[in-house]
Specification:
The protein is of the alpha+beta class and 123 residues long. The chain has three helices and three strands; from the N terminus they run E-H-E-E-H-H. It is flat.
Length: 123
């Protein structure tokens, strides 16, 4: 049986002991035992996603062997990841740009009541 270990950055780099989840999943007709520090439902979801991708590619290219299907599925998922990461970075930049003018307006708005309070004290 093939063991797939999923580690978070903290576990992989820090060497900390973390409780592990273990789940058996089926991907394209093969069974794999996944052991990781994520929930078993998350590991099943990830495995299901990989299985779905492999089946989608196999439906279009039924003559491909399992290794080629796995590589094509990995390439498709990597493509999706990089597109989403780019979109995420663009959204973060947009949020940073829109947040900067709001901070300036708040600073100005925050100063006005102080001036009014000073004028009220003078009277």
């Amino acid at each position: 049986m093939f063991f797939l270990y999923l580690y978070s950055k903290e576990t992989a780099r820090g060497g900390q002991t973390v409780s592990k989840e273990k789940v058996v999943v089926e991907i394209f007709g093969q069974y794999y035992t996944m052991v990781g520090d994520t929930s078993s439902s998350h590991m099943r979801m990830v495995a299901g996603y990989v299985d779905d991708k492999m089946r989608q590619i196999s439906a279009v290219n039924p003559r491909l062997d399992t290794n080629k299907l796995a590589v094509l599925a990995a390439l498709n998922m990597a493509d999706e990841y990089f597109k989403l990461r780019l979109e995420y970075e663009e959204l973060i930049k947009l949020l940073e740009k829109t947040a900067a003018p709001e901070e300036t307006e708040e600073d100005v708005a925050g100063e006005e009541p102080e001036e009014e309070a000073v004028e009220a004290d003078k009277e």
